[in-house]
TrEMBL record:
CDD domains: WHTH_GntR (cd07377). This is GntR family transcriptional regulator. Keywords: DNA-binding, Transcription, Transcription regulation. GO terms for molecular function: DNA binding; DNA-binding transcription factor activity. The keyword Transcription applies. InterPro entries: GntR_C, TF_FadR/GntR_C, Tscrpt_reg_HTH_GntR, WH-like_DNA-bd_sf, WH_DNA-bd_sf. It comes from the Bacteria. It comes from Dethiosulfatarculus sandiegensis. The keyword rRNA-binding does not apply.
Length: 238
């Protein structure tokens, strides 16, 4: 017996969107170039203005184009940072509404940071370690300023990720730090333990300079695990 499958109807705007995506991916419209006008798209695909506008809005939300008031939309240059930016809103919503997701992010960060430490040992140059030393000093100078201390702490970790030379790692590090700062700042360093946090960063820096990958990975992993454990305990008490 022939299996019957229902015919799925698709919105006209989705069809227009997919055709435009195909043009972008094929290079017919290149990054940085203006998109065709609404009128041109209407003529090409023989559709009305509402379908075109909805398709363009969908392309913007997906990160393919940038729409500015008074200007024609342009194709966005694809980068890892653009991709992470498109995940930002939904991730923030997830973190705000799902405590379990916070713990998943904590575990992921611990593994990620250990890997970044190993890459920093492998690829780090003297000027990279000089920058990390400046940030560690900034943390020391701001032991009595929680806000500035956390900012320097974040910058330290993002700089370490940047040493990899991999823009994907840099974008991930920046996004994770931003998410944790907004919703769960204590995961970036428990208030009242700034001296210990600083000591751990200085120990990590020393092992990076010594090119001891195992020790560097262990220190940063233990550092994040300590913060994670204290956070979990505080959540149980609240």
């Amino acid at each position: 017996m022939v299996k019957r499958k229902p015919i799925t109807r698709r919105k006209l705007s989705h069809l227009v969107r997919d055709r435009l995506i195909e043009m972008i991916e094929n290079g017919d419209i290149k990054p940085g170039e203006q998109m065709p006008s609404e009128h041109e798209i209407m003529e090409w695909f023989e559709v009305g203005r509402p379908a075109v506008r909805e398709a363009m809005q969908s392309l913007e939300s997906m990160g393919f184009i940038c729409i500015r008031h008074g200007e024609r939309a342009r194709v966005v240059m694809p980068t890892a940072e653009v991709v992470m930016d498109k995940l930002d809103s939904i991730t923030r919503h997830l973190l705000a509404t799902s405590p379990e997701t916070v713990f998943h992010l904590m575990d992921a960060r611990q593994v990620f940071e250990a890997g970044m430490a190993r890459l920093a040992v492998e690829r780090g140059r003297p000027k990279d370690f000089e920058r990390l030393a400046e940030l560690a000093q900034c943390m020391r100078d701001n032991l009595d300023s929680r806000e500035n201390f956390v900012k320097a702490d974040m910058e330290f970790h993002m700089t370490m990720a940047g040493i990899s030379g991999n823009p994907v790692f840099t974008a991930i590090s920046k996004a994770v730090m931003s998410w944790l700062l907004q919703y769960h700042e204590d995961l970036l360093g428990v208030a009242g333990l700034e001296d210990l946090t600083l000591k751990e960063h200085e120990m990590l820096l020393a092992k990076l300079i010594e090119k001891d990958a195992d020790a560097a990975a262990r220190i940063v992993s233990d550092h994040i695990m300590r913060s994670n454990t204290l956070y979990r305990e505080s959540m149980k008490k609240s």
